[in-house]
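Whiteboard transcription, Tuesday session. T.W. wrote the structure tokens on the left side:
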């Protein structure tokens, strides 16, 4: 590919990226990017959404607790090692 071809490819990628950034919250853009047809997506009832959100929150809090325990254990090990030296 000649230099002009590389430049044209770069310009087309810049235009595509700008088009994607224009409306990042546009659901159709995300659906089209994954090659799904929007008409196949069913609306989700509020009860199911609430269940998904609560499950995600529980998982997030569990992960946070695990991270806190690991961090505390590492701090404790460091303090013990500093005391022994």
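and on the right, the sequence the group agreed on:
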């Amino acid at each position: 590919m000649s230099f002009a071809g590389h430049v044209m490819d770069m310009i087309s990628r810049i235009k595509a990226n700008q088009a994607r950034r224009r409306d990042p919250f546009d659901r159709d853009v995300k659906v089209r990017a994954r090659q799904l047809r929007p008409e196949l997506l069913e609306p989700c009832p509020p009860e199911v959404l609430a269940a998904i959100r609560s499950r995600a929150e529980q998982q997030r809090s569990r992960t946070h607790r695990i991270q806190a325990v690991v961090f505390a254990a590492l701090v404790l090990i460091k303090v013990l090692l500093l005391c022994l030296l």
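Someone added at the bottom: Residues 34 and 45 are 23 Å apart (CA to CA).
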